[in-house]
Amino acid sequence: MVKKKSIEMLPDAANNLVKLQGICGKTAQRLMTLATEWEAHRKPLIDAQRTLKEGLSLRKVCAHALTNCTA
Questions:
Q1: Do the Cβ atoms of 50 and 58 come closer than 8 Å?
Q2: Is residue 7 one of the residues assigned to a domain?
Q3: 6, part of any domain
Q4: What's the number of domains the chain is made of?
Q5: How far is the C-alpha of 48 from the C-alpha of 34, rounded, in Å?
Q6: What is the dihedral of CA 12, 17, 23, 26, to 10 degrees?
Q7: CA–CA separation, 48 vs 25, rounded Å?
Q8: pLDDT at 60
Q9: Residue 15 domain-assigned (yes or no)
Q10: pTM of the prediction?
């Protein structure tokens, strides 16, 4: 099927190449837009995760310190 379509497109190759370049350009732009949107959603989640990890680490340090104080 792909081979048949390719052969059908050969007579107008220059025009089809321009169309393909346009499609690729739009796709690249859309990908960049999606990456920017994803980063906007991702950053607060990463920040929250870091805060929670820091809190857990601090809690472990405090628990260890309390264990050593009572021993």
A1: no
A2: no
A3: no
A4: 1
A5: 22
A6: -140
A7: 35
A8: 87
A9: no
A10: 0.60
Domain that holds residue 49: 33-71
In this prediction, residue 28 carries a pLDDT of 98
Q: Is 8 exposed, middle or buried (0-12, 13-18, 19+ CB in 10 A)?
A: exposed
Integer Cα distance of 2 and 4 in angstroms: 5
Is 44 part of any domain? Answer: yes
Residues of the chain with pLDDT under 50: none
Q: Residue with structure tokens 């680490």?
A: 57
Tokens of 7: 């052969």
H helices of 1-71, where?
A: 2-9, 13-70
Tokens of 12: 């107008």
Give residues with Cβ within 8 angstroms of 9, minimum separation 6: 16
